[in-house]
């Protein structure tokens, strides 16, 4: 009944808080957007380092890592995990598997005499 006797006060109060909230969200979004290039650059550097480490590993380590990552992803999938988690578990398997495939791509074909 308090809102019925003072409807303008409740509306004005919610308008002010909604404006404040919108201003706060806009400020934080612009601050996050300003930091986005630095985050993308740092992510690119770390992906490059991870690729270098994968390239330096032996075939046995890559085979075990690929198998482990695929098993982990399959376990997540069968366990009913979120599909995003399953996809994230497949990323290292794809990177290591592609490296193995790339290393042995030309060695299984017909060799010239």
What descriptors fit this protein?
113 residues; mainly alpha; 0% strand; elongated
Looking at the structure, what is the overall shape? elongated
Main beta sheet: none
What is the count of β-strands? 0
Strand content: under 5%
Q: Rg, please? A: 27 Å
What is the share of helical residues?
over 70%
Structural class from helices and strands? Answer: mainly alpha
Unreliable residue stretches: 6-10
Order of helices and strands: HHHH
Number of helices: 4
Distance between the termini: 96 Å
Mean pLDDT: 83
Structure report:
By secondary structure, this protein is mainly α. It has a domain at 57-104. The chain is built from four helices and no strands. It has helices at 2-5, 7-56, 59-78, 83-103. Helix 3 (59-78) runs antiparallel to helix 4. The termini are far apart.
Structure summarized in a few sentences:
The protein is mainly alpha-helical. The protein is built from 4 helices and no strands.
């Amino acid at each position: 009944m308090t809102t019925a006797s003072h409807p303008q006060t409740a509306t004005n109060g919610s308008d002010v808080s909604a404006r404040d909230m919108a201003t706060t969200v806009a400020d934080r979004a612009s601050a996050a957007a300003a930091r986005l290039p630095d985050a993308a650059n740092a992510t690119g550097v770390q992906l490059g380092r991870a690729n270098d480490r994968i390239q330096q590993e032996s075939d046995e380590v890559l085979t075990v890592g690929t198998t482990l990552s695929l098993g982990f992803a399959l376990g997540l999938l069968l366990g009913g995990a979120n599909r995003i988690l399953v996809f994230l578990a497949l990323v290292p398997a794809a990177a290591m598997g592609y490296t193995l495939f790339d290393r042995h791509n030309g060695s299984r074909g017909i060799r010239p005499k």
